[in-house]
Amino acid sequence: MKKLLGLISILGVAVLFAAATSPAAPVGIGAAQLKLGLLKYNGGGDWYSNPTALPNLAAFCNNQLGTNLNVGYGTVEVGSAELYNFPWVHMTGHGNVVFNASEADNLRNYLIGGGFLHIDDNYGMDPYVRVALEQVFPETKLTELPFDHPVYNQAFRFETGLPKIHEHDGGPPQGYGIFHEDRLVVFYSFQSDLGDGWEDEAVHNDPPEIRQAALRMGANLIQYAFEQ
């Protein structure tokens, strides 16, 4: 029953988002204020990285897209029924990621029921998150998205795909996805470090144009997920 209610909740907030971003909608509708989620997982990885990232992204979307997002965020565990209360969930870290069978099942049901997961490798997470995702979607693999995919062509255009925010191993930034019934349900940003670019300016001292690129790409992901 909780899962069913959660799926209804996801559909409901998607409708509210559409209403809140309509040109005719009042900006301050309290019922339409959504909150982004931060995924808490086991395994020892620092899921709590970048604490100022989501508030800044929400504020940027409110300013640039006309959304009415809560500038706070909610921390939610992978296996919790509360996951279904968040239409868009962010996952990050530098290390190990472990899902047990129940958590993998819960995350899968959330995603196929209308939820969206953005995973951002903060460096060192890649080999672990790929294994974890295979538990969630054993029938499909992460595939790199072409530059003409809609996630790169929302309010802001990224003609060459993901922006490079921080350098790690010299590789190009890559955006991967997992699809369910032709709907993108997981977007994985690798060798980009979008979340670092969302943080307060004083945290990493990134140039304004780098932070702007990161926030614009994040806004694209939110707009894409909520308007599908």
How are the SSEs ordered, and which strands pair?
Blueprint (H helix, E strand, L loop, with lengths): L1 H19 L15 E5 L12 H12 L8 E5 L10 E6 L7 H12 L3 E6 L4 H11 L6 E2 L29 E7 L2 E8 L3 H5 L2 H4 L3 H20 L1
Helix pairs in contact: 2-7, 3-4
Description:
This protein has 228 residues and is of the alpha/beta class. 36% of the residues lie in helices and 17% in strands. The protein has one domain: Domain of unknown function DUF4159 (Rossmann fold, 3-Layer(aba) Sandwich), CATH 3.40.50.12140. It is built from seven helices and seven strands, in the order H-E-H-E-E-H-E-H-E-E-E-H-H-H. A seven-stranded mixed β-sheet has the order 2-1-3-4-7-6-5. Helix 2 crosses helix 7 and helix 3 (101-112) crosses helix 4. The protein is globular. The two termini are 25 Å apart. Mean pLDDT is 88; it is low at 1-31. Keywords: Signal.
Salient structural properties:
Rossmann fold; seven-stranded mixed beta sheet; globular; disordered N terminus; DUF4159; signal; DUF4159 domain-containing protein
Q: Mean pLDDT, rounded to whole units? A: 88
Structural class: alpha/beta
Counted by DSSP, the helix tally is 7
Give the SSE order as H and E letters.
HEHEEHEHEEEHHH
Q: What is the first-to-last residue Cα distance?
A: 25 Å
**Sheet with most strands: strand arrangement:** 2-1-3-4-7-6-5
| CATH A-level architecture | 3-Layer(aba) Sandwich
- What is CATH's topology name? Rossmann fold
Radius of gyration, in angstroms, nearest whole number? 16 Å
- In percent, how much strand structure appears in the residues? 15-25%
Query: What is the β-strand count?
Result: 7
CATH class: Alpha Beta
> Percent range for helical residues?
25-40%
- Tally of domains: 1
For the report, how would you describe the main beta sheet?
7 strands, mixed
Overall shape: it is globular
CATH 4th-level superfamily: Domain of unknown function DUF4159
Low-confidence stretches: 1-31
